[in-house]
Amino acid sequence: MMKDVIAIVLAGGKGTRLEPLTRDRAKPAVPFGGVYRIIDFTLSNCINSDLRKMLVLPQYKGFSLNRHIDQAWKFLTPNLGEFVEVLPPEQRIAESWYAGTADAIYQNIFRIEREQSRDTVILAGDHIYTMNYAAMIAEHRRREADLTIACLPVPRPEARHFGVMHVDAQQRVVGFREKPDDPDPMPGYPGLALASMGVYVFKTQLMFDLLLSDAQRSGSRHDFGKDIIPPMLDTHRVFAYPFRDEARKAAAYWRDVGTLDAYYQANMDLIQIDPLLNLYDPSWPIHTYQPSLPPPKFVHADGDRVGAAFNSIVCNGSIVSGGQVHRSLLSPGVRINSFAQVEDSILLEGVEVGRHARVRRAIVDKHVRIPSGLSLGHDPDLDRSRGLTVTELGITVIPKDEDLERFAARH
């Protein structure tokens, strides 16, 4: 265990672009990939990197996140110095919510100081990827860096959503702009920009000094990318660390699932024959809470009533009873009734699809019952007229516990 390192997971974003999935839960607590929550990937990276001191800093709608961490992440041993602690805002230092990423850590500085860590790893709790942070920490120490920033090339139009860096031949960061309207291209690659992943390794004491100084500076937005990092470039040793994907596929996999369309596509990536994100690698397990449920079951194979799933992920407790599922993800406890058709969709826990119902290109949140004969996702304009969310790419999204019976009589 890397006893002289603490990991801090920022989990405070509202996730407004993921509504209605974030109406009742924080973005890092949104279900993903059948059985996981988004935050499980960051926390699993920590465990697999031998980092076992983790602080999670939520802010909004924290009940679901707190419950999940309590169920899934209490296998660590506090007596051995291992922990995952959730630290909700206490207004101990300031009488306000977290004003920015730097302020979130500043307001918890007393708890962080107790660990007396040599280095601090700062992570986002809302990205999907696999990464060995221990290798990044080793490089940080080898270079005697004050700050190391994980980075990867992204298409320039997408780089507007990230911090964009310039580096010299030794990977030293010589320029940094947070979410620029006109991202600078990488030398020799005009279509790409070098983006920060929001993964930082700081010398802990230096981080404290910078946070204290920033807290006292009027006009600061108290954000790492805007206020902490740019002034460091001329006075401190700041280096970039190229992202190394533990899946070791042809292309590195890192996804910011901050929009409904990005969330949908990242889930759909998992049902490919050889997905870039490998959930089946025993050397890099993704930990989560697994409820005690029976195995999935497929029943009926008579005439045109066939219970089957093709190119899909089907989780425990699900029953495909005489319906058919194509290119979809069924979370635990989903039921597909006879003659129903589900295509290119994500069904979260406890969803039931009635007889002869049709679901296509949809995200259906927990415990929704789709009435018999109802069609969803086949006519985006009709779904909009029903008051349902339809994304730019035409994905219909059904909120948690939504009552769809009012539409049943028309179809």
Please write out the topology:
Elements lengths: L4 E7 L19 E2 L3 E2 L1 H10 L4 E6 L4 H10 L10 E4 L14 H6 L2 H5 L5 E6 L2 E3 L3 H10 L4 E9 H4 L3 E5 L5 E6 L13 E12 H12 L8 H9 L5 E5 L11 E3 L3 H10 L27 E3 L1 E2 L2 E2 L1 E3 L2 E2 L4 E3 L2 E3 L2 E2 L4 E2 L4 E3 L2 E2 L4 E2 L4 E3 L1 E3 L4 E2 L4 E2 L3 H6 L3 E2 L5 E3 L6 H4 L3
Parallel strand pairs: 1-4, 1-6, 4-5, 8-12, 14-19, 17-20, 18-21, 19-22, 20-23, 21-24, 22-25, 23-26, 24-27, 25-28, 26-29, 27-31
Antiparallel strand pairs: 2-3, 6-11, 7-13, 8-11, 9-10, 9-11, 15-16, 30-31
Mean pLDDT: 93
| CATH fold label of the largest domain | Spore Coat Polysaccharide Biosynthesis Protein SpsA, Chain A
**Rough shape?**
elongated
Count of discrete domains? 2
By DSSP, the count of extended strands is: 31
Oligomeric state as shown: single chain
Poorly predicted segments: none
The biggest beta sheet, please?
Answer: 9 strands, mixed
Describe it.
By secondary structure, the chain is an alpha/beta fold. It has 2 domains: 265 residues, Spore Coat Polysaccharide Biosynthesis Protein SpsA, Chain A, CATH 3.90.550.10; 112 residues, Hexapeptide repeat proteins (UDP N-Acetylglucosamine Acyltransferase, domain 1, 3 Solenoid), CATH 2.160.10. The chain contains 11 helices and 31 strands. The strands form 7 sheets. Strands 1, 4, 5, 6, 8, 9, 10, 11 and 12 form a 9-stranded mixed beta sheet that branches. A 6-stranded mixed beta sheet has the order 18-21-24-27-31-30. A 5-stranded parallel beta sheet has the order 14-19-22-25-28, with no helix packed on it. The model has no long low-confidence stretch (mean pLDDT 93).
